[in-house]
Amino acid sequence: MYLGAADTFRAAAVEQICIWGERVGVPVIKQQMGSDPASVAFDTLSSAKANGADVVLIDTAGRLHNKVGLMNELKKIKDVMKKVVPTAPDEVLLVLDGSTGQNAFEQAKQFSAVTQITSLAITKLDGTAKGGVVIGISDQLQVPVKYIGLGEGMEDLQPFDRKQFVDSLFKHEA
Questions:
Q1: Residue 144 burial (CB count, 10 A)
Q2: How high is the pLDDT of residue 129?
Q3: How many Cα atoms sit within 13 Å of 138 on the Cβ side?
Q4: Are 59 and 89 in contact (CB under 8 A)?
Q5: What is the CA 67 to chain-centroid distance, rounded?
Q6: Where does residue 69 rank: exposed (0-12), middle (13-18), buried (19+ CB within 10 A)?
Q7: What are the Cα distances from residue 127, in Å, to 62, 113, 130, 142, 169?
Q8: Spatial distance between the Cα atoms of 156 and 142, rounded to a whole number of angstroms
Q9: 102, 129 in Cβ contact below 8 A?
Q10: DSSP string spanning 94-126?
Q11: Tens digit of each residue's pLDDT (9 = 90 or more) over 65-79
């Protein structure tokens, strides 16, 4: 397995991926802050392919769906990956913040216009956010919800359980 630190814009993003790579014992491919994210994706896939890795995760950053340049960069990442592995990517996981509410619909719409989303994850469900909007997004895009994030710990990203999720939406706090 390899991790690619293609979030080269946000301060400390590369450091965060490197810390997680160390924690789980996975090599991280990175470049300098401000580097071309597509170049990081290319290097990551090339290294993984050369070393016979079967799984590659590339963090492409928290992109603003209303910034055309950032969205074009996402398309470029996908195109560059195909130069190394013609069938790449096998999966595109759109991670949505559970506290964004209805704005998540527009985010999902814009991301799906640039790349084919194959699954969803909803994060920040450890607070007051319920993340119910993900049900409509999953239905609209016809893609499954695979994971939910309940914190920042190693065990806090969990497989999505639809029954448990729906039950939590209607749970009343005393």
A1: 11
A2: 62
A3: 16
A4: no
A5: 17
A6: exposed
A7: 20, 30, 8, 27, 13
A8: 25
A9: no
A10: EEEETTSTTHHHHHHHHHHHHS---EEEEE-TT
A11: 556 677 888 889 999
Amino acid at 132: G
Answer yes or no: are the C-beta atoms of 93 and 69 closer than 8 Å.
Answer: no
Asked whether the beta carbons of 66 and 110 are under 8 A apart, the reply is: yes
Sign, Cα dihedral of 58, 63, 96, 148: positive
For residue 128, name the pLDDT band (cuts at 50, 70, 90). Answer: low
Hey, which residues does 39 pair with through a beta bridge?
A: none
pLDDT over 70 (residue 62) = no
Give, for 73, the enclosing helix (H) or strand (E). Answer: helix 68-84
As to burial, measured by CB atoms within 10 angstroms (0-12 exposed, 13-18 middle, 19+ buried), residue 142 is: exposed
Residue type, 76: K
| Residue 90 to residues 11, 19, 31, 80, 152, Cα–Cα distance (Å) | 28, 25, 23, 14, 26
Question: Looking at the predicted structure, is the pLDDT value of residue 111 above 90?
Answer: no
Q: How far apart are CA 156 and CA 150, in angstroms?
A: 5
d(CA 7, CA 14): 7
Buried residues in 9-18 as b, exposed as e (16+ CB within 10 A): beeebbeebe
